[in-house]
């Protein structure tokens, strides 16, 4: 039905009446155009179908595979003979680089640009290591040490006179052999005697000489460790040595990068100056690592006060180029034992003797000034006020000529007494310089152990550590600290933070970068601190006793056994003690019994009426868990056996493997002493004499040990 709109125009009426028809017609027209356009598209002929293309590809592949030089047309070939050089051809000479030098800036700067002073980047210590240990340390009152040194100086003069008289008397007698002045008589040719009072004419053990208690325990002078004089206090100590590397070369480079082109640059003063360090410790339990807490703030005064309590200043074993007077804590005087590889970082090995030839300690500064006396609430403030390159007094002055007592009974004049704090250089043994620089050497080696709390030139106690001067080549220094407040059986971790004097603290404000000025106004201190180091590995503190596996037997039987040598220390007698026995699996290696060998200079035996040996505590805290080795390796050689091994567990539950080969030196020393004693007893029985002590093998020592006498 058509709409009737009389008021609308004609176009509107047309759309209303015929709009549907128009839309349908338009759609049909578009559809027709699409159909028409599709009819005109090209189609793929048969030559481009897949079978035809595959055939052409195979033909091309066959042609390439069959291609040869002869198949090319002549115009496509390249004849190399046309490019050969002929006589008369010009050849270009090669370019010489030196004829074309690098052109510098056309207008170079006369001086580098000057900038404001910045704070150098501070580098923390690296690669912390820990070395637990236990043994005997010695200490004393500083006043007692000074009094003893004065008495030692007088005694040395008397001994020197007696030595001269003895030399004249022996020259008149015309030889060293003969009969001794005591009631006994030497049993051998004129050989030097053993240590100690010796056996009166008895058979001896040569330079291993000593005596025996009534119940047959050997008492032998120690072969190593700091010498004792009788007034010291001997303390049984457990400790952890904290070691690290100080990247000194990198730190100097950081200072140069920050200050070399800055205002007020002074090469002598604008370099890192360490004034102390902070060390923290955390205990490790089954629950993990605890919270780190302050253990010690170390400054020069702390080290000097500690050294003042040491009767002997032990010479360091580390190469001097790695030692920093403040960061490398001095070696405490250890009795009975020598320090070894445990006092240095694994990346800074101990030097060989030939490496130290020509190396001298620092000379004393005659213009040294005492440190500032004013106190400050801040521990490091006074150290930061120390004058630049302050020298040292007393303890590092050079001693005079020394008197040596190296071999038993011999007095020798030594070289000049060396440098006080590092130990005087004696003759072949104990050397005492004219300026109170005493030294105790290692036999003929002559390396001294300075005696007293820095008693150098003038006899005054040291008030300053020596300054450190970098050699511009050493990359790392040794950081070392001894923590002697630990408890055996516990586990610890450590971390270290170095303290450096603020190089910008006394500079004019106009020279400083705004960041530096802001920091100084906020902190109001004269030093800066590095970041904390990474925590150290876990240190397990051992008991004072040590075990050494020597043999095994009956490994195939129901109760296999291991022979263990157990060594410990005894502070009451200032002695190192040892015994050996056979143990089965599950044995707890803690005992209270008599030793078989006692190394000591203070434990005395009456040669006329020897006393019984006391009971000693052998406390290792170890349990023998398992063992193997010791089986015969070759059927034709009964003595060729596999090395013995033992698995032990300490009080913290840590398992450790002990190997006979790794502990061979201690085992051989113990067995050698016991065999020598057995041999001396056998000879005494054969000769029908009584062995009252393993003295020297004869010579002039009838009443004073063998040979030429002993200490």
TrEMBL record:
Feature: compositional bias, Gly residues: 177-191, 392-407, 693-711
Residue ranges, annotated region (Disordered): 162-191, 346-409, 680-711
Top-level taxon of origin: Bacteria
Bias (Basic and acidic residues) ranges: 162-172, 680-689
Name under which the protein is recorded: Uncharacterized protein
Natural source organism: Lacipirellula limnantheis
């Amino acid at each position: 039905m058509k709409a009737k709109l009389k008021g609308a125009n004609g176009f509107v009426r047309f759309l209303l009446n015929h709009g549907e028809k128009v839309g349908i017609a338009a759609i049909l027209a578009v559809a027709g155009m699409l159909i028409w356009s599709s009819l005109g598209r090209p189609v793929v002929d048969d030559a481009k179908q897949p079978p035809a293309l595959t055939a052409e590809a195979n033909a091309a592949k066959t042609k390439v595979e069959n291609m040869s030089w002869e198949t090319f047309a002549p115009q496509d070939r390249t004849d190399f003979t046309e490019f050969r050089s002929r006589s008369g051809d010009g050849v270009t000479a090669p370019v010489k680089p030196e004829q074309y030098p690098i052109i510098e800036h056309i207008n170079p700067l006369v001086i580098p640009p000057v900038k404001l002073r910045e704070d150098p980047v501070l580098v923390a210590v690296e690669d912390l290591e820990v070395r637990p240990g236990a043994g005997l340390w010695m200490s004393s009152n500083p006043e007692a040490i000074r009094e003893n040194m004065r008495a030692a100086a007088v005694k040395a003069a008397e001994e020197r006179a007696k030595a001269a008289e003895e030399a004249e008397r022996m020259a008149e007698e015309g030889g060293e052999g003969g009969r001794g002045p005591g009631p006994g008589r030497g049993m051998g040719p004129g050989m030097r005697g053993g240590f100690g009072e010796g056996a009166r004419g008895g058979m001896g053990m040569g330079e291993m000489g000593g005596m025996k208690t009534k119940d047959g325990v050997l008492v032998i002078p120690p072969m190593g460790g700091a010498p004792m004089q009788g007034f010291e206090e001997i303390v049984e100590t457990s400790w952890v040595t904290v070691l690290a590397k100080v990247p000194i070369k990198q730190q100097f480079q950081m200072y140069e990068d920050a200050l070399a082109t800055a205002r007020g640059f002074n090469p002598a003063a604008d370099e890192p100056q360490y004034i102390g360090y902070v060390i923290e410790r955390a205990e490790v339990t089954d629950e993990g690592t605890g919270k780190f807490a302050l253990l010690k703030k170390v400054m020069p005064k702390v080290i000097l006060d500690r050294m003042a309590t040491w009767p002997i200043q032990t010479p360091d074993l580390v190469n001097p180029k790695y030692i920093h007077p403040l960061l490398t804590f001095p070696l405490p005087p250890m009795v009975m034992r020598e320090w070894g590889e445990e006092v240095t970082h694994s990346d800074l090995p101990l030097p060989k003797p030939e490496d130290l030839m020509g190396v001298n300690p620092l000379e004393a500064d005659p213009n040294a000034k005492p440190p500032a006396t004013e106190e400050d609430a801040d521990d490091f403030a006074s150290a930061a006020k120390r004058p630049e390159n302050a020298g040292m007094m007393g303890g590092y002055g050079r001693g005079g000529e020394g008197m040596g007592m190296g071999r038993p009974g011999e007095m020798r004049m030594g070289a000049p007494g060396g440098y006080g704090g590092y130990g005087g250089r004696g003759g072949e043994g104990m050397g005492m310089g004219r300026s109170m620089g005493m030294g105790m050497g290692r036999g003929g080696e002559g390396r001294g152990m300075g005696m007293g709390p820095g008693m150098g030139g003038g006899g005054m106690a040291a008030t300053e550590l020596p300054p450190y001067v970098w050699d511009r080549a050493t990359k790392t220094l040794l950081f070392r600290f001894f923590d002697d407040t630990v408890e055996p059986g516990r586990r610890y971790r450590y971390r270290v933070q170095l303290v450096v004097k603020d190089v910008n603290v006394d500079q004019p404000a106009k020279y400083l970068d705004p960041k530096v000025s802001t920091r100084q106004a906020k902190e109001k201190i004269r030093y800066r601190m590095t970041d904390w180091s990474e925590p150290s590995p876990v240190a397990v503190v051992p008991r004072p006793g040590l075990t050494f596996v020597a043999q095994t037997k009956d490994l195939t039987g129901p109760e296999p056994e291991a022979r263990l040598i157990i060594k410990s220390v005894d502070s009451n007698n200032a002695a190192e003690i040892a015994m050996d026995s056979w143990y089965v699996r599950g044995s707890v290696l803690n005992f209270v019994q008599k030793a078989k060998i006692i190394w000591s200079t203070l434990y005395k035996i009456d040669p006329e009426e020897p006393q019984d040996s006391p009971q000693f505590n052998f406390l290792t805290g170890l349990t023998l868990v398992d063992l193997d080795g010791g089986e015969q390796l070759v059927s034709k050689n009964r003595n060729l056996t596999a090395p013995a091994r033992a698995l032990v567990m300490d009080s913290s539950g840590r398992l450790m493997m002990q190997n006979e080969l790794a502990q061979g030196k201690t085992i051989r020393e113990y067995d050698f002493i016991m065999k020598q004693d057995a041999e001396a007893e056998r000879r005494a029985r054969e000769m029908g004499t009584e062995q009252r002590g393993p003295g020297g093998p004869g010579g002039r020592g009838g009443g004073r040990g063998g040979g030429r006498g002993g200490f």
